[in-house]
Design brief:
- By secondary structure, the chain is α/β, with parallel strands linked by helices.
- It contains 17 helices and 25 strands.
- The strands form 5 sheets. The chain has an 8-stranded mixed sheet with strand order 7-6-5-3-2-1-19-20. A 6-stranded mixed sheet has the order 8-9-10-11-12-18.
- Strand 1 and strand 2 form a beta hairpin.
- It binds zinc ion (2 copies).
Length: 564
Amino acid sequence: MKQPNNGAGKQRGAEKQRSEVKLRIIPLGGLGEVGKNMMAYEYNGSIMVVDAGLMFPDNDMLGIDYIIPDFNYLIQNRERVCGIVITHGHEDHTGAIHHLLEAVNAPIYATPLTRGLLEVKLARGGLLNQVKIHTVEADEMAEIGPFQVEFFHVCHSIPDSVGLGITTPAGLVVHTGDYKFDHTPVDNWPTDYAKLAEFAGRGVLALLADSTNADRPGWTPSERVIDPAFDEVFRTAKGRIIVASFASLISRMQQVANAAINHQRKLAFAGASMVENAKMARKLGYLDMPDDLMVSIDQGLKMKPRQVVLMSTGTQGEPTSIMGRLSTGTNRQFDLTPGDTVVLSSHPIPGNEESVFRTINRLIRRGAHVIYEKVAPVHVSGHASQEEMKLLLHLVRPKYFIPIHGELRHLHQHSLLAQQLGIEEERIAIIENGNVVEFSGGQMKVTERIPGGYVFVDGASVGEVGPAVMREREILANDGFMVVNLTLDRSSCRLREEPEIITRGFVHEPDAEDLLAGTRRIVVEAVNCTSNGRMKGDLEQSVKSYLYTRTKRRPMVFVTISQA
Ligand SMILES: [Zn+2]
Ligand SMILES: [Zn+2]
């Protein structure tokens, strides 16, 4: 067959052009931290977002409910966003979804359980009717803009989790999401090893893999080891059992249900998110519970303590959660009773350890028998440890490797593991939020950096609380404040009366008199020798340095000046 020359030329030109189109990978959250996962894949003008998570605040982030990624890049390019893929239903992958949807209008792709959990969340925010959600199953493929996305099953601590094989003309990228290699998972559905090997057969340009446990040697235990631990708890508990976990830990609900059946207890869920998630998971067939196992929380509270197990949220020491309120005796619906056994079936998220242990101490002080991870294996990690990470790398055999989902130390450790397996350092990109990686002509390059910081959510305000406000809250919390009210004579600019000084949160009683007298002296002297508008700032400065020399503290100082 004769082919016109110009046609072939055009085709070659198109191919050349295509190979020059870059695949950009832009981490917007979850790299350099544990939480608020969000990754953008960009090819030929289209952007696909993977996950939209939140992060819980550190203890020193006062008044902050949670933190979401800085996705300004997506807002600026909102008409180019072609889809949002959610790998699984955990908060660190779904918790920012309504914030993202308020800014970007694109369809969501999720497996049935993940979809169910998203719908519960979106319905609460009134967004459910405004968004198109496509249900995808493991083993299926979806065309999302220029991205061919193959979903493959991975084990994690929630059913229906998937990893992604993302194909563009630039090559095949494998994105694991959160995973572990559990051979005996609670839902009997192991990670799809065959698919990973098949990807390797096709040739994988880059692997992006979960680094959470990169500093943990060996294998993560199977979720099954929890069953005997629960069995022991249920066998020995004399009174009521209260199990605290995450509202999205569906497989843990299943394990508690199994133990309840074996030990003739009824199960009641406390808290709206737990009740709604359990209802949805049962409807979709991810939770197998006979109807007569469940009782409402009201019924459960009326039953004999030995006959019931309650499940609630609040494993992270959050003061407003049910567990937090039980620890301080401020829960409205019910309180701890003597003989209660409390099981904390979770691991403290990094940064939360202190408040988790404080909650445990309070629960013990209030008479509860508390069982937590360090005492009995009532929790196992949902993330791969070092040997699983090595197996993954051998199965997938990527040309380039990008550790994701972890603090810098985890990413670094994951990179060292990969190097042990023979992946050269030049083929590994340790990057943090905002670091853009580009692939073109089969080569990887770390390029520019775009903003990738924190957006604080404080009640109804999103992003209005900035670093300056956080600093002020920190100072107020640590060192308190002092207000100095001055009344000046309008004509002479002299003090008309003694300065009024108010302090909160930093003066110790015995030192108070002396310190306030000293402050008053400084203010009086400064006023008498100053005569211009800079006085307020100067006064605040000199009071601050006086207080610092006397107390080694830096409270906020406000001076108000009125004239009479
Ligand atoms: Zn997860
Ligand atoms: Zn995660």
